[in-house]
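Fold this sequence, please.
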Amino acid sequence: MPWNAGRCLQKGGIGMIRIGLTGWGDHDDLYGPGLDAKLKLKAYSRFFPLVEVDSSFYAVQSQENFARWSASTPEDFAFVVKAYQGMTGHSRGKIPFDDTESMFFAFRRSIEPLLEAGKLKCVLFQYPPWFDCNRVNVELLREAKMRMEDIPVALEFRHQSWFTPQMRDKTLTFMTREGWIHSICDEPQAGEGSVPTVLAPTNDAVTIVRMHGRNTANWNKGGGPNWREVRYLYRYNEAELAEWRDHLLALEKQCKEICLIFNNNSGGDAASNGLELMKLLGMPTEPMAPRQLDLF
């Protein structure tokens, strides 16, 4: 069955809820192993009405890529595109651009096919754990927002100083005033390099929610060869998903659209959790590919 508006939920509030995953290439439990990589996004869009593009974090993608991805998805499909790492201070070495202005220009140009198709929900600026709350970084946020012009942008912090009891309301007021969409996190509470779940929209149009798992023991073990596989290794249980169902139903009364992304795919849990949450919200779902039974 092709995707349709029934895959989003609209209840008594003002908003709509979309569920999606980070990327589309690593979810073999959706469509089975062996599917050609060029066909995976189209297959993915049968299950979810939203996806996060994370390849754009590692390199500014070509317009041709975004045009192909747009053409592979239904008319009402939506993309959250992660900002290039040089734009958020993750890339501490040399970047392949002459200066900051040309870097932002190249990124804005790259996503034009999604803008023209009306499929870009926002660009996600996820800042690193060392990006703490100070005057210099506040000015960097203002500069990034200005350089993105009128493109919708979401902001996700990874340093808890932005949401201490003393700074929480000030941070939210700043985001609202400056036009940043709040990217709300569900993640381990593991020291200053993590943020609490703050259920507060800062934009009337869109709120982003990103589900990183709750693997507290391994959250801060970055730098190793398999740090990503360890960090996001987590499967949400039914009680945790039910808790988020209630959070989403409350948030959708405050915002026109809630876009929730599961990022806990280290062990292949994101797709299953996404479909489980959709069912809890009363959304229709597609069955995943049948599991192959191994001899041993």
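Residues 241 and 247 are 10 Å apart (CA to CA). The longest helix spans residues 238-251.
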